[in-house]
C-alpha cells in the first residue's frame, strides 16, 4: 500500500497502525494514544499467532515507535517450517535464492519514531480520530534506511541440534518448502486483504467523522467568532461603564462636597436668619418710633420749606445786591485809577551789580514826600558835575542837581513784589474790561527786561510783572466764577525789530520769518487789531505762561552794545486778550492787557568810526529812537486832544493804538542806572518820562456789551 489512510480511534485502530508500520517501508504515525495504551493486536496478527507454534522467538529490536510495552510477534510460519530444509541445504550455495524468496521487511526509519514520540509528549491522549489521510498524504516521506536482516531463528531441535539447510540435490524437499511457503503467502495475502478491507471501512468511517467534525468545527468557529465579537463588545461596554462609574463616583464626590458646603451654608443662613429676625423686630420697633418722629418732622419740613423759599428769595436779592456791589466796585476802582491818572509814570532805579563801581555819595537822592518819611517816595534828585564849567577863581563848579517828580519812585532796594503790588490794581482794571498798557522804558542795561520778565527761572522772588500779572488774573478769575463770571485768556508775544514784526512764539521753520507777520484789522468794521501769521495761544495756568516766556526769550533779537553784553535790540510786546461773560445776566466784557519791554534808548555819537558791525547797531538805534519818538508824539497828541494821532508812523504805536488812547489806562516804568557814567542817558530817560507824566488823557470807559 502506497498511501495509508487514517482510521478512527479505538482499540483496533492501534493494532492497524502497528500492522501498517510493519508492512510499509516508511510509516509516519501520529496516533496519540500509542504512548499510553497497552499492546493491542489486529485480527491479522491474531490469525498469524494462531498459525505459528507456541515457541518464543528470540528477542528482536522493535521497529515501531511505541512508548508502552513491546508488541510480540511469533516467527513466520514459512520461516519455521522451512528451517530444517534450510539447514540441510546450507553450504550448497542456495542461501541467496532463499533470501530472495523470503525478503525481510526493512527497518523503520528512526525519524518517524521520534516524531511519534514527540507528538505523544506534546499532545496528551484525547478522544478523537487520528490525523486524516490528506494530512498524511501531504507530509513528505522520510527516507528509509535499509533494514538489517535479523538473525535466523528456528525452533530448537530435539536433542539440541539445529536444523540445517537442505542440500542442493534435495529438490523435492526444497519444492515442499516452496509449496509450504506459497501456502503461507496465500493465507497471508488473504489475511492482508481482509485487513485492508477492514482498514478501508475504518478509513471511510474516519472520513465521515472528519467531515462531520469539520462541519461542527466550522459552526463552532462561527460561534466562537460571534462569541469573541460579543466579548469584545462586552469589553468595550464594560470599559465605558467603568469610565461612567468613575465619572459618576467623581460627580458623587463633588455633589457630596457641595452638599456639605450647602449644609454649612444652610446652618449659617439659619443663624443669620435668626439674627435678622431679631434685627427686624428691632427695626420694626424703631420704625414705629420713626413714624411717630416723621409725623412731627413733616411739620418741621413744611416750615423749613417756607424758610428755604424765603432764603432763596433772599439769596436772589443778595445776588443782585452783590452784582450791584461788584459793578460799584468796578466803578470806584476805575474812578480811583482815574484820580491817579490814566497815564502814570513810575521810576525804578536798579541796584549796583557785582563788579560795578559804587556811585559817589549824593549822586542819587530820594527826598521824602510832604507827609515825611512815612509817605511813599515820589521824587528823585540826580547830581551832575561838569568839568567844562569853572568859576572865576579857577575852582571847579559845584555839581548841578536835577529834581524829578513821578507817581511813584522805587529805590534800588525795592523788590519785584513791591513793584507788582503797586500795579496790581491796574491789572484788575484789565479784568474789569478796560484796556491796559504797561511800558518799561530806559537805556540799555537799566533793568527793563528784568522788571517785565524777571530773573532766572525757579526763583519766585525774582519773577517779573508778566508772570505775576497772569497769576493774579487767574486767581481773581477763579474767585469771580463763584459770582457767575467765566473768563478766557489768549496770549501772543511779538517783537518789533527795525520796523519788522516778528512772532516770538514761532517754532520750527517759521522762526525768524518776520516778513510774514503784518498788523491787520480783525474785520471790515472791527477796531480790533491782530498780527497775521502770529500764534495766539490759549492759556489757563502759570505753567503754560512760563513755557511761552521761555520760548520768547530764546527767539528775541539781542546784541552786544557798549552798555550791555546782551542788549535787547527790539520792542517786545506781550498781549493777553481777556474775555469775560456772565451767562445768567447776559453780560460780556473784554479788553487787552499789553506788557511792553521797549528797546534801549541811547543817543548816537556821530564822532565814532563805524565798522560793519557798528553800522548794524546804528540802523537798530535809529529805528529804536524813531519808534520811541513816535510813542512820545502819540502821547502828546492824545494829551492835547489833537484831531490826528500819528499811530501809523511806527509799527509799535500802530499795534498799541487801542491801548493808548480814549478808554485805555497806561503806565510807564522809566528804568535808570545808578552809575555816574550813565548819568547823561539817565537824564534823557527822566526828562522823557517827565513829559509823559505831564500828559492827561480823557476818562476811560469799559468795553462792555
Automatic annotation (TrEMBL):
Stretches with biased composition (Pro residues): 357-371
Transmembrane segment boundaries: none
Record-listed ATP binding positions: 442-449
Coiled coil feature spans: 182-342
Region (Disordered): 1-20, 32-168, 357-404
Any one GO molecular function term: ATP binding
Example of a GO cellular component annotation carried by this entry: nucleus
Domain of life assignment: Eukaryota
Compartments where located: Cytoplasm, Cytoskeleton, Microtubule organizing center, Centrosome; Cytoplasm, Cytoskeleton, Spindle; Early endosome; Nucleus
Keywords assigned by UniProt, alphabetized: ATP-binding, Cell cycle, Cell division, Coiled coil, Cytoplasm, Cytoskeleton, Endosome, Microtubule, Mitosis, Motor protein, Nucleotide-binding, Nucleus, Phosphoprotein
The Kinesin motor domain, residue ranges: 342-695
GO terms (BP aspect): cell division; microtubule-based movement
Self-association state and partner proteins as the record states: Binds NUBP1 and NUBP2. Interacts with PPP1R42.
PANTHER family assigned: KINESIN-LIKE PROTEIN KLP-3, PROTEIN CLARET SEGREGATIONAL
Protein's job: Minus end-directed microtubule-dependent motor required for bipolar spindle formation. May contribute to movement of early endocytic vesicles. Regulates cilium formation and structure.
Family designation: Belongs to the TRAFAC class myosin-kinesin ATPase superfamily. Kinesin family. KIN-14 subfamily.
Protein name: Kinesin-like protein
Organism encoding this protein: Fukomys damarensis
Amino acid at each position: 500500500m502506497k498511501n495509508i489512510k487514517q482510521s478512527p480511534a479505538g482499540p483496533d485502530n492501534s493494532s492497524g497502525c502497528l500492522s501498517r508500520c510493519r508492512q510499509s517501508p516508511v510509516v509516519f504515525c501520529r496516533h496519540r494514544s500509542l504512548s499510553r495504551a497497552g499492546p493491542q493486536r489486529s485480527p491479522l496478527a491474531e490469525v498469524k499467532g494462531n498459525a505459528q507454534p507456541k515457541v518464543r522467538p528470540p528477542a528482536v529490536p522493535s521497529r515501531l515507535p511505541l512508548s508502552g510495552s513491546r508488541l510480540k510477534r511469533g516467527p513466520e510460519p514459512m520461516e519455521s517450517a522451512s528451517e530444517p530444509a534450510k539447514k540441510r541445504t546450507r553450504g550448497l550455495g542456495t542461501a541467496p535464492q532463499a533470501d530472495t524468496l523470503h525478503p525481510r521487511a526493512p527497518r523503520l526509519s528512526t525519524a518517524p519514531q521520534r516524531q511519534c514520540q514527540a507528538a505523544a509528549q506534546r499532545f496528551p491522549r484525547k478522544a478523537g480520530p487520528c490525523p486524516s489521510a490528506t494530512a498524511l498524504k501531504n507530509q513528505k516521506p522520510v527516507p528509509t534506511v535499509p533494514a538489517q536482516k535479523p538473525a535466523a531463528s528456528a525452533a530448537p531441535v530435539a536433542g539440541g541440534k539445529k536444523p540445517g539447510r537442505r542440500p542442493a540435490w534435495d529438490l523435492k524437499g526444497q519444492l515442499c518448502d516452496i509449496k509450504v511457503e506459497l501456502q503461507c503467502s496465500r493465507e497471508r495475502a488473504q489475511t492482508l486483504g481482509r485487513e485492508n478491507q477492514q482498514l478501508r471501512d475504518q478509513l471511510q468511517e474516519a472520513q465521515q467523522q472528519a467531515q462531520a467534525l469539520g462541519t461542527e468545527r466550522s459552526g463552532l468557529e462561527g460561534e466562537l467568532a460571534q462569541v469573541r465579537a460579543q466579548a469584545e463588545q462586552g469589553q468595550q461596554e464594560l470599559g465605558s461603564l467603568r469610565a461612567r462609574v468613575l465619572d459618576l463616583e467623581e460627580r458623587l464626590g463633588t455633589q457630596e462636597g457641595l452638599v456639605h458646603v450647602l449644609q454649612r451654608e444652610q446652618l449659617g443662613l439659619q443663624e443669620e436668619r435668626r439674627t435678622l429676625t431679631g434685627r427686624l423686630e428691632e427695626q420694626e420697633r424703631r420704625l414705629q418710633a420713626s413714624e411717630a418722629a416723621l409725623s412731627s418732622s413733616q411739620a418741621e419740613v413744611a416750615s423749613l420749606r417756607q424758610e428755604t423759599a424765603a432764603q432763596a428769595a433772599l439769596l436772589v436779592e443778595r445776588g443782585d445786591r452783590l452784582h450791584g456791589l461788584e459793578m460799584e466796585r468796578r466803578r470806584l476802582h476805575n474812578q480811583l485809577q482815574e484820580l491817579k491818572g490814566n497815564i502814570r509814570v513810575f521810576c525804578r532805579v536798579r541796584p549796583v551789580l557785582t563788579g560795578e563801581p559804587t556811585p559817589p555819595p549824593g549822586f542819587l537822592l530820594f527826598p521824602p514826600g510832604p507827609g515825611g518819611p512815612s509817605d511813599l517816595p515820589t521824587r528823585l534828585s540826580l547830581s551832575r558835575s561838569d568839568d567844562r564849567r569853572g568859576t572865576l577863581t579857577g575852582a571847579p563848579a559845584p555839581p548841578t542837581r536835577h529834581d524829578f517828580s513821578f507817581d511813584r519812585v522805587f529805590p534800588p532796594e525795592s523788590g519785584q513784589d513791591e513793584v507788582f503790588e503797586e500795579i496790581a490794581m491796574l491789572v484788575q482794571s484789565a479784568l474789569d474790561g478796560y484796556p491796559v498798557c504797561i511800558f518799561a522804558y530806559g537805556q540799555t542795561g537799566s533793568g527793563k527786561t528784568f522788571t517785565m520778565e524777571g530773573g532766572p527761572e525757579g526763583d519766585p522772588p525774582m519773577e517779573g510783572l508778566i508772570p505775576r500779572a497772569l497769576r493774579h488774573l487767574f486767581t481773581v478769575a477763579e474767585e469771580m466764577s463763584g459770582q457767575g463770571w467765566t473768563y478766557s485768556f489768549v496770549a501772543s508775544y511779538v517783537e518789533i525789530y527795525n520796523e519788522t514784526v516778528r512772532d516770538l512764539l514761532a517754532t520750527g521753520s517759521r522762526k525768524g520769518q518776520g516778513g510774514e507777520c503784518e498788523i491787520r484789522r480783525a474785520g471790515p468794521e472791527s477796531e480790533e487789531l491782530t498780527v497775521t501769521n502770529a500764534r495766539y495761544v490759549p492759556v489757563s495756568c502759570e505753567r503754560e505762561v512760563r513755557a511761552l516766556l521761555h520760548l520768547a526769550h530764546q527767539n528775541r533779537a539781542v546784541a552786544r552794545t557798549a552798555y550791555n553784553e546782551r542788549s535787547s535790540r527790539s520792542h517786545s510786546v506781550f498781549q493777553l486778550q481777556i474775555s469775560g461773560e456772565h451767562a445768567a445776566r447776559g453780560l460780556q466784557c473784554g479788553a487787552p492787557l499789553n506788557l511792553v519791554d521797549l528797546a534801549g534808548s541811547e543817543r548816537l555819537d556821530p564822532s565814532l568810526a563805524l565798522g560793519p558791525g557798528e553800522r548794524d547797531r546804528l540802523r537798530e538805534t535809529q529805528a529804536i529812537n524813531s519808534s520811541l519818538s513816535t510813542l512820545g508824539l502819540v502821547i502828546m497828541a492824545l494829551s492835547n486832544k489833537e484831531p490826528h494821532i500819528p499811530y501809523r508812523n511806527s509799527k509799535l504805536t500802530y499795534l498799541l493804538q487801542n491801548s493808548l488812547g480814549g478808554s485805555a489806562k497806561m503806565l510807564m516804568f522809566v528804568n535808570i542806572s545808578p552809575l555816574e557814567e550813565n548819568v547823561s542817558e539817565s537824564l534823557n530817560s527822566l526828562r522823557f518820562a517827565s513829559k509823559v507824566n505831564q500828559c492827561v488823557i480823557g476818562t476811560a470807559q469799559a468795553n462792555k456789551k
